[in-house]
Amino acid sequence: MSALPGTIAEAARRIAAREVSPVEFVRAALARAEALQPVLHAFLRLTPERALEEARAAEARQMAGALRGPLDGVPVAHKDILETAGIPTTAHSRLLEHHVPRRDAAAVERWAAAGAVTIGKLATHEFAWGGPSFDLPWPPARNPWDPSRFTGGSSSGTAAAVAAGIVLGGTGSDTGGSIRGPAALCGIAGMKPTFGLVSRRGVIPLAPSLDTVGPMARTAEDCALLLQPLLGHDPADPSSLDRPAPDVLSGLAGGVAGLRVGVLRHFHERDLPATGAVAAGVEHAAEVFASLGATVREAELPALSAFNAAGWLVMAAEAFAVHEAWLRTRFRDYGEILRERLVLCGLVSAADYLAAQRRRRELNAAIAAAMQEHDLLLCAAAPAEAPPLGAVPRFAGIETLNLTYPFNLSGQPAITVCAGFGEGGLPVGVQIAGRPFEDALVLRAAHAFEGAAGWHRRRPVM
């Protein structure tokens, strides 16, 4: 077999043309996962039996001319907060070390129905918040660009596995930036869809009014291919919106000519001063959009600290509510980092939570007003290149601000894509956000940027 595909779009073409065997493709992914696991710790477990069974079924459809679509036969993996039938789903925590669900999460089901092949479960931060931790049954994932560096969190294993070329896509979840942050630090694309468009059934919760499931992949195009089958109402999820699923694929190549792009420079210049490489990445993206025919102007929102204060209080109160019973009965089974964070969360009062939700509405109104003047917002995704793994603040989100919270609070779609490289050859990313339910436009803009800039073509040497 010739060289394996590097993107889902390429894989779909080559599998359809019978140039790539799904079975050989999946075997190669499993072999690469095993070879890199001692370095990256991206997986909590591999599922070779399930993977090869699904790959053989995909190959049978391939030979019969009955492929289900662009994901058929493509190796993927799932963040270990998405439940998988008959396969342990641990949330990277000792508390759920032996939890074996009876049913797949909705997102797992929908990708399987599209023919995607699950090769394993991916590392995360404990319950998608506590990490990177070194006192859990499994070590934290490491960054393929430099294994001494942080991947971002909490979709850490997904970012590492995609960046290292083990899988072509994977699931992530995003409550305060847990898709977009790791995508930035690992040089891939990560999409947080509009809140309520993707079912969260079977996903272990962190903060239910913020939690969102979305795809992570090499490119925005691949994110669109992964997102399309996830869209659509699920009556089993109370947060799922009963509205027609948007088409995020047909207009992907439409470009950005005539669009109005607002650049939130104050986020990385005043509110959370960024490294030179991050600032250069934002300016580079703005210049690319202008060269492609977009109107690029300065945009202004309330200070990043306001979004972080509201976002952290909402997350803290809801996370404590999720974990209170376990904290009373299994306190010492939590890792130290999450245990300390959750204890702090217990100090958030009902009055604090309600005040944060009121402030959230005010901040969302400010974003909505800005979106009347701009079709898209552009800003940094992380303030710096990936830090050393041991240098991440214990109380991240309080000790440091977060560039991704604004679009969790608003629920609008946002994607991170690679926008260059900085110190030590480490990637930097930018965010592109759009109005609620304009996920297709966000993906279209990201795809146009990637096509013009080309940063996504650079891969880490493993």
Descriptive overview:
- With 462 residues, the chain is an alpha/beta fold.
- The protein has one domain: Amidase signature (AS) domain (Amidase signature (AS) enzymes).
- It is 39% helix and 13% strand.
- The protein has 14 helices and eleven strands.
- The protein has an eleven-stranded mixed beta sheet, sandwiched between helices.
- Helix 2 packs antiparallel against helix 3.
- The longest helix is centred in the C-terminal third of the chain and has 26 residues, at 304-329.
- The radius of gyration is 20 Å and the shape is globular.
- The mean pLDDT is 97.
What order do the helices and strands come in, and which of them pair?
Blueprint: H1 8-16, H2 22-40, E1 43-46, H3 48-64, E2 75-79, H4 106-113, E3 117-122, H5 156-163, E4 169-174, H6 180-186, E5 189-192, E6 212-217, H7 220-227, E7 260-263, H8 265-271, H9 276-291, E8 295-298, H10 304-329, H11 336-345, H12 350-373, E9 376-380, H13 405-410, E10 414-421, E11 427-434, H14 439-453
Helix pairs in contact: 2-3, 7-14, 10-11, 10-12
Task: Provide a short characterization of the protein structure.
The protein has 462 residues and is α/β, with parallel strands linked by helices. The chain has 14 helices and 11 strands.
Mean pLDDT over the residues:
97
Order of helices and strands: HHEHEHEHEHEEHEHHEHHHEHEEH
Within CATH, the superfamily carries the name Amidase signature (AS) domain
Approximately how much beta-strand content do the residues carry? Answer: 5-15%
Count of spatially separate domains:
1
* Total beta strands: 11
CATH class type: Alpha Beta
Instruction: Characterize the largest beta sheet: strand count, sense, and whether it forms a barrel.
Output: 11 strands, mixed
Gyration radius (Cα, Å) is: 20 Å
- State the low-pLDDT regions, or none: none
The count of helical stretches stands at 14
Return the structural class.
alpha/beta
CATH topology: Amidase signature (AS) enzymes
